[in-house]
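pipeline/complex-builder :: batch 7 item 3
reading input block
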Amino acid sequence: MTAQLMADRSSTIVRLLRRNATRNLSKILESMRTEDIAAVFRRVVAGRWKQLFELVQPLERRAELLSELDPEIQEPFLQQFANAELAQLMRAMSSDDAADLLHLLPEERASAIMAMVKPDDDLSEAVELMRYDPETAGGIMVPLNFAVPAAMTVGEAILELQSQSEQLEMVFYLYVVNDHGHLVGVCSLRDLVTTPPEIQLADIMESNVIRVATDTDQEEVARVVARYNLLAVPVVDETNHLVGIVTVDDIIDVIREEATEDMLKMAGVAEDFDVSERKAVWSSARARIPWLGAAFLGGLGGIFIISSFQAAIETIAVLAAFLPITVGMGGNVGTQSATIVVRGLALGRIEVGRLWAVVRRESLVGIACGVVYGLALGLIVLVFFGSQQSPVRLALSVGCSITAAMGIAATVGGTMPLIFQRLNIDPAVATGPFVTTSVDILGILAYFIIATLLLGL
Amino acid sequence: MTAQLMADRSSTIVRLLRRNATRNLSKILESMRTEDIAAVFRRVVAGRWKQLFELVQPLERRAELLSELDPEIQEPFLQQFANAELAQLMRAMSSDDAADLLHLLPEERASAIMAMVKPDDDLSEAVELMRYDPETAGGIMVPLNFAVPAAMTVGEAILELQSQSEQLEMVFYLYVVNDHGHLVGVCSLRDLVTTPPEIQLADIMESNVIRVATDTDQEEVARVVARYNLLAVPVVDETNHLVGIVTVDDIIDVIREEATEDMLKMAGVAEDFDVSERKAVWSSARARIPWLGAAFLGGLGGIFIISSFQAAIETIAVLAAFLPITVGMGGNVGTQSATIVVRGLALGRIEVGRLWAVVRRESLVGIACGVVYGLALGLIVLVFFGSQQSPVRLALSVGCSITAAMGIAATVGGTMPLIFQRLNIDPAVATGPFVTTSVDILGILAYFIIATLLLGL
């Protein structure tokens, strides 16, 4: 559905909801995909969510819808369900989706629901998944109990698949295990369909299977799937037993999520990505204020540095005019370097052992840009501020300052994400307040030190 | 392969290349996946690429390798091939990959190669694809000539698939067409495998097929695939004839590319994402200088505004000390708002018809943050700058300035990407130099206007 069509459809649903036009609504909802209904929820006020939700039939579709809502909607919406009702819906969804919802619930509610689960319950798989960190392969996998021995023929494997088809959500590959249950091979579904039935799996399987461990970070899993163009990757435990698969549709979500997270962290708004009217302005502001605090502290540092050079400004008032451009250009080039390094790390384009070459390069690029803009600013001073005392020295001072500030900024911007990565902190965090703040302070310092030296203040 | 293992493997290959240890190299390369060999190229100097490339056997693997190299490597590497050699490699790769390479070549070389292609050539499909913009569905699709009539049974369809298996690269879905060749249905491969062979396709196919047009933007294609969890999406021409499919592995690349592009544009480095030593420092600097130019022009505007208030600074020199923090906090909050809106648009979370609600919200959040930091800064002035003339007025002036600057910045940051989107310019571009520059200038203006009014300058 196009954006415009979706917007119209949403408006219609909102209007019908207000009028309680249940029959019309049911008819519209029946014709829509659950993914599109999930998008409509963004336009509906929280007080009407339950009404809309209950018009979706049958239970399986409601379960699918619940798992497809944006997390910002899921979290408040889950509060509108009783535990038993929620458990019933979770039983009807795939176990990784159910586990995601359990993670979103407050701990005591999650425990209460998990306590209701008996060993043969459909929900027991989801409970199993709760053992894993939600941002690892274990946390995003679908448990898989289906694998076949290498001695099986293609024909037998197809029959086996057919008999299991109800439990298998998405089948892309057939995994082959040895007598100990260790993962030893893989066949694509296409291989099965296009091979004569009497051939043994051992003869057509790929035995060098790309796999990830349950504790592999989801970003790494995404890199593996992207690099090798896989549709699914098997997840093994520490003894190489196949425990699940991560499918490509979940990987797409991971890639989008991680990119969003990185962008928001770089801008210092990691906790506030909800542009709807649902979220109170004040709660958005509260989420952003701590990040701005780092910049504020840096700004205060700047204030005290500048006021300690107050005598210099009193002597040459025009010095104040060139400070913002110096700090600003430093900030810009610092952000450029930091962004390149952060994204290079995220895409696996920067390799271990080449880190310092990257920093050296960023520094040189920063200095090169700094020289260009230093010359430009120096010329502008000579032309427009020639009536000042000793204009040549002023031009030299201002030009050198901007070059220094940009060189320092590119170096800091290139280095910080690498240091953060070493310390196992997400490098994207570095690019936000940390780089800008330190670049601001260093720029202001460089500016006044150079002015003091060259203008003899 | 883990990052450390890959780094070791790369070092070994680089060493063996220097020693011309051909036999050892061939053995290592044979055991590696082409995706991993492609990653090794990042560590090898351009002068050794051809040597390494030719050790990979047979031709099909070399073709795969060539299509998997980073575009920054492909572009210079393609210069090392003769046209005939390149055409031969392109014939051995899938047509969408070959078309990508043709797009990378200088126009005259691409034309020369295309002129060599005869109608029954393997390359003719790739040439066909060159008609489409490379960033649309047509540009990233694989042409598809395989579709079956609705009256076919499941068993016949499987036989048909088996007979076509060599030409079909990745099969996920079987597309069903009517007598006019119009796309009317789709079955998953799983449906085929798990349905009795005598059932007709018409009985199991989904007739509401999600499709895209050849000129649909690749970002929109990615959104469709992500939203509906598809493995492939059919591409139709203006007459609803099936002309190709876009597969999920290409979508993953699109999502990563688009996120990278957005991040680089936001930082103002869209043209420079190559951290290797291959690219000369100067050519990197040259790519960044135009973007920094926008910030520089804004900075110059700032200089002239500040110097026109020189008298004010000469009267109260400490005014200069509070300017950078005011401008800086504005810049930070402006970037936050712009990032949220840009990412919201990219993910399709901001819907048509709700744009101005989003701007209003960002403004309010900016003002809320501004009031908090305005109060904080005012207090700091009272405590640390109490010895100045009329400290209360100074505190009030500085506090109001930062509130105004942050409110304005959030409004501008929220609005610009939406305006750019309306004008069909990528909103990510807005977040870079445009937002920061206008926010800087508006912040400086607000600062001095408020100071003039409150301090009676």
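note: The longest helix of chain A spans residues 391-422.
queue -> next item
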